[in-house]
Amino acid sequence: MAISIRLPNELQSYAANGKAIPVQAETLGEAMQKLKNACPDLSTRLFDASGRLYSHLKLVYGQQTMNVETDAETTLADGDEIEIVGIASGG
Questions:
Q1: CB 3.0–4.6 Å: which of 8, 23, 44, 83 could bond 60 by disulfide?
Q2: If phi over 0 gives left and psi between -120 and 50 gives alpha, with beta otherwise, what is residue 18?
Q3: In whole angstroms, what is the distance from residue 3 CA to residue 45 CA?
Q4: What spatial distance separates the first Cα and last Cα of the chain, rounded to whole Å?
Q5: Cα–Cα distance between 21 and 35 in angstroms, integer?
């Protein structure tokens, strides 16, 4: 199934396709693995050495915040979008 993974502006320069990365995946976990394989430069900015999404980033799918580990088996449909959102912090 064709899925689009949308990137925050600050990470778009690390992906050849810029704003959104198309992947063929049936689950959230598979989509994230395909993203890692397709964009290794981007992957190092999204995932730590143990493969976990950095805490300052969130995945949004269907208006819900998703967790890569606990929601990996979430089924996706053709044309779905997953958005990676950067969380702002500071004082």
A1: 83
A2: left
A3: 21
A4: 42
A5: 7
Q: Which two tokens stand for residue 40?
A: 């290794």
Name the phi and psi angles at 18, rounded to 5. Answer: 70, -105
Q: Which domain holds residue 40?
A: 2-86
Q: Is the pTM of this model over 0.90?
A: no
Residues 6+ apart with CB under 8 A from 16: 39
CATH of the domain at 9: 3.10.20.30
Q: How far apart are CA 62 and CA 64, in angstroms?
A: 5
Which carries the bigger pLDDT value, residue 87 or residue 77? 77
Read off the tokens for 89.
Answer: 């912090």
Contact 18/39 with Cβ under 8 angstroms?
no
Share the mean pLDDT of the chain. 91
Give me the DSSP letters along 35-65: HHHH-HHHHHHHB-TTSPBPTTEEEEETTEE
